[in-house]
Amino acid sequence: MNFEYAPAPESRAIVDIKPSYGLFIDGEFVDGHGHSFKTVNPATEETLAEIAEADDADVDRAVKAARKAFRGWSRMPGKERAKYLFRIARIIQERSRELAVLESIDNGKPIKESRDVDVPIVAAHFFYHAGWADKLEHAGLGANPQPHGVAGQVIPWNFPLLMLAWKIAPALACGNTVVLKPAETTPLTALLFAEICQQADLPPGVVNIVTGAGGTGQALVSHPDVDKVAFTGSTDVGKAIARAIAGTDKKATLELGGKAANILFDDAPIDQAVEGIVSGIFFNQGHVCCAGSRLLLQESVADEVMAKLKRRMGTLRIGDPLDKNTDIGAINSAEQLARIRALAEIGEDEGAERWSPPCELPSSGFWFPPTVFTGVSQAHRIAREEIFGPVLSVLTFRTPAEAVEKANNTPYGLSAGVWTEKGSRILFMADRLKAGVVWANTFNKFDPASPFGGYKESGYGREGGRQGLASYLKAGA
Amino acid sequence: MPATASTAQGSASSPGIGAYADVTASEASLRRFLHGLPGVDQVGAEARAASLGTRSIKTTAKAHALELAITMVDLTTLEGQDTPGKVRALANKALRPDPADPTCPSVAAVCVYGDLVGSVKEVVGHQVNVAAVATAFPSGRASMEIKLADTRDAVAAGADEIDMVIDRGAFLAGHYLQVYDEIVAVKEACQRADGSHAHLKVIFETGELQTYDNVRRASWLAMLAGTDFIKTSTGKVQPAATLPVTLVMLEAVRDFREATGVQIGVKPAGGIRTAKDAIKYLVMVNEVAGPDWLTPDWFRFGASTLLNDLLMQRTKIATGRYSGPDYFTLD
Amino acid sequence: MAASRVDVRKTYKLYIGGAFPRSESGRSFVVNDAKGKFLANASLASRKDARDAVVAARKAVPGWAGRTPYNRGQILYRIAEVLDSRGDQFVAELVRTEGVTAAKARTYVEAAVDRLVWYAGWADKIGQVVGNANPVSGPFFNLSSPEPTGVVAVVAPRGPLLGLVSVLAPVIVTGNTAVVLASEAHPLTAITLAEVLDASDVPGGVVNILTGTVSEVAPWLASHMDVNAIDLTGVTDPELATDLERAAADNLKRVRRAPATEPDWLATPGIDRLTDFLEIKTVWHPIGV
């Protein structure tokens, strides 16, 4: 008997998108002086708003505002700073539906993720770090740790509001002030966050939001009066930033790409492992730096797992991001869609076998079906390059040592997954995997108390937890 | 007429249960097999169940689901104070859950203690099935002879379905073959003179088995022993049916059909009280086992108060306003 | 008149993979003492020596990082013991190369021994101090622990023994392996220290020491794609330091920048030289039955 789910769209009436947005500098929205650009709904290609572009002078103004605010903010007693962060956390909770809907409209991610994952963790990040603001002397950096000063932060489009929270919450808790540049294709929730700062009566200049593309980000991280750079995005841009700040006193946290191995042993809890594989690569359309994009299956269970995985993929619902039953939403941009398509074609050309469940894609907007490649070897480009889309490459292994070797055979080192019911094997694998986060019998879990960040070319520094906090502090005199 | 027969032989292309004959040949081989099943990670299973619970079933889908859920109810009373009068009233409700609305479907079955089967049968005839709990329900603590006599009595009284309990003590002590043999014997006791048999449901009392690994093992054990349905609970032990327990059982019947071609039904029982909950179960059936299980032949709710909530929600959809308990019969 | 005995002059070689090879280039350079008089010949390392040293260091990583922290602590303590027992040799060498008084030289040697002892004790404590369990909001066990980053290139500071020990010990005690480019001004002490390391149960390849020209060799280490981190403490030319940091970005090496001035090596260190070359790994696991 067929059980069709009727459309269950979340109302978008709750959000009020303005025709155009300026920059948020020194507590006010102001005009930008670059070439303004449009942000579109990737599910429909409808233009949502005209966004100001910050040019070098605008960035300079924002950094000056942050510098001016730094004095008061860093000297404010921690318990008072904390109260601003608590206020922000509360407002985020109160406006959570609005934020979730806006995020899904601007980004294309399914509402069930923006509602149940992104926004709740955003609020949790502010709560967690609010509590640190008056306890910094216990953070492990001595009795009198000090903020760096002005933090220049550049975030990606995959988790727009969540990455903002990862950047802004610890920076502010430690007494830094920030200039943040959201991604060009997803500026709207950052601009709504600016309104939330106003609503919280946050002192002007403590948070400044400058919108724009790569040029704006470059101006920000290279600005001589920025003391701390925090970037989440591609490894190429991360390297460019590392070069740009060479020879300066700027501190940097770089959270970059990944090509995580999700390793499944024959004694794994298979049904949960299949869920972990699915959430590992199809969560957020695979636009996740720590996505489990390389599935390593022990040969003895490879066929069984593939059969279960394919059946499970057949139940994924792709479509309108605002439908509460949508599992996979829209690809964030035409550009990203083109990249995913190109790499998938390369996968086929290189001889891997491509499979997607039958699914109907909407006629407008940017869409890519959940896709799995089998018969992939380490030499294939789809096993080495970050696709950043809903595309899984499946490889096999025979022994734990081979699994470790294959998992680590990448310049990246952000995350890894291990599935086995044998406790000692989990610890053996966790010990040998060169990755900043190892999920054992789970995947893609995030928490403000848990440090996140990579080895090797996945970047350096951690975000979240005590270690992440330390990135925004220096030992005091 | 629901719940007639399962395809006990499997399809031509599948190996059938016979392929597992060596598994049940000895205590040791059965234990090896059950312990060789993939483990269930509690956190992962519960997260999956919770995630399915967030599906939003609205409008036409909701109307369809409510209607379907009503037809899947095993309307149940299992109290020491049950009387022929009480169960007859319940039987009437089973036939016509909403007397004000003749389009409202009947439920799947009425579920009572064995001695009351006749009273129910008088009312429902063959329009609704009669299920009887048996084998020293709910504890299962009696000799084999008593359990079999209990079963034969109920079948002789006209029970269409037998809901037996397993010996949880034996299961937890690792005497899997004993549990297996009991199910096989009870299944035999379900035979009628004409060669047909009462439909057998095996109750695990998952609240006593406690771990999902045990639920998975019990599911495979019962399916190998030839049960027609696997059922979560008696309703006498907390927790009774839960979404994750049912998830694990749905995975088991799905995998069992894949392996043998034989389809087995699933019945969560106890603790399902609201239409909202029932719809979550249907979503889970749909997405885990698949649409083939979305009929009363293959999925049931063991419940009592659930029915009225289903009826209230059904009326809300029909009338556009919220209803109240005074507009529905108590039994 | 009795014939005076002719000195046995020592040629100082490189220390790579537990062996003391000459530079593959065959080059050497003259090292004079503080008064400008000939002291010895030292090997002039080439880019290929740097390459070989990185290969040796990489090969040594799994074994060294895989030792128990207790064992690494024991080995560092052993280095301290051997260094202490050869204290007179180092005092004499410092007097000759640095032109300092014997008393001052002894202060430095003793401080170097003490520094090794101090870092030896960190081997099995740093994980407790910078790692922790994280109270996440869900049924998960979540633990963050430090791990060595891998192969660390170290441009050693001028301070001939104490400075060298102060930058080397924190790198290796946590399980990293090191390729050290000795101070251009004081290559000999570095090689004498290598002899101490060689006698102290330090596995071959854990420490590799090159002598030569910083501006020639350091860029090859900074750009090497199989080096995980670089310590620029000994780089005194700001332009070179910037170039090296830029080159290090090619594979996102962890970089410890050069200080504005040579640190006071006698001061008690913090733990930043340990943490700069550690990665935090966070492991999640569900809690269930």
Automatic annotation (TrEMBL), chain A:
Belongs to the aldehyde dehydrogenase family. The active site is at E255. InterPro entries: Ald_DH/histidinol_DH (IPR016161), Ald_DH_C (IPR016163), Ald_DH_CS_GLU (IPR029510), Ald_DH_N (IPR016162), Aldehyde_DH_dom (IPR015590). CDD domains: ALDH_F16 (cd07111). This is Aldehyde dehydrogenase family protein. It holds the Pfam family Aldedh. Keywords: Oxidoreductase. The keyword Acyltransferase does not apply. The keyword Zinc does not apply. GO terms for molecular function: oxidoreductase activity, acting on the aldehyde or oxo group of donors, NAD or NADP as acceptor. Residues 29-474 form the Aldehyde dehydrogenase domain.
TrEMBL record, chain B:
One of its GO terms (biological process) is carbohydrate catabolic process. InterPro entries: Aldolase_TIM, DeoC, DeoC/FbaB/LacD_aldolase. Signal peptide: none annotated. Pfam families: DeoC. Pathway: Carbohydrate degradation; 2-deoxy-D-ribose 1-phosphate degradation; D-glyceraldehyde 3-phosphate and acetaldehyde from 2-deoxy-alpha-D-ribose 1-phosphate: step 2/2. SUPFAM superfamilies: Aldolase. SMART domains: DeoC (SM01133). Keywords: Lyase, Schiff base. Its EC number is 4.1.2.4. It catalyses: 2-deoxy-D-ribose 5-phosphate = D-glyceraldehyde 3-phosphate + acetaldehyde. It comes from the Bacteria. Belongs to the DeoC/FbaB aldolase family. DeoC type 2 subfamily. This is Deoxyribose-phosphate aldolase. It comes from Nocardioides immobilis.
Automatic annotation (TrEMBL), chain C:
Residues 24-255 form the Aldehyde dehydrogenase domain. Keywords: Oxidoreductase. InterPro entries: Ald_DH/histidinol_DH, Ald_DH_N, Aldehyde_DH_dom. One of its GO terms (molecular function) is oxidoreductase activity. Pfam families: Aldedh. This is Aldehyde dehydrogenase family protein. It comes from Nocardioides immobilis.
